[in-house]
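testing teh design pipeline on a random one, pls ignore if ur not involved
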């Protein structure tokens, strides 16, 4: 059974940091490109960041590239998102995604709330 389980979300003050994790199982993690996607309250899905299957290349949405860092650990089958300088507009449910054509897998999401 394919599973993507996100963790690490929570309540943080503006300017704070969080590190999200996404534990993968049930598929060959190293064969898949991985991404983080978020959904703010009342809004659609927004792509955050992606990393290639081997970790050689990373990509970020413009508003996040100086604050967020995506990484992966093949030994642990885990994807990470280090988020710094968080702002209220970063409040959202964060989902991890695994992609290798034609397969797409999604986690259940983890809530990040940025508020004072």
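output:
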């Amino acid at each position: 059974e394919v599973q993507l389980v996100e963790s690490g979300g929570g309540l943080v003050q503006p300017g704070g940091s969080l590190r999200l994790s996404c534990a993968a199982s049930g598929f060959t993690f190293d064969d898949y490109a991985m991404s983080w996607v978020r959904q703010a309250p009342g809004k659609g899905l927004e792509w955050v960041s992606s990393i290639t299957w081997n970790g050689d290349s990373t990509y970020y949405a413009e508003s996040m590239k100086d604050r967020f860092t995506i990484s992966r650990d093949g030994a642990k089958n885990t994807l990470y998102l280090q988020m710094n300088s968080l702002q209220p507009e970063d409040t959202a449910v964060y989902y991890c995604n695994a992609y290798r054509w034609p397969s797409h897998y999604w986690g259940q999401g983890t809530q990040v709330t940025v508020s004072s």
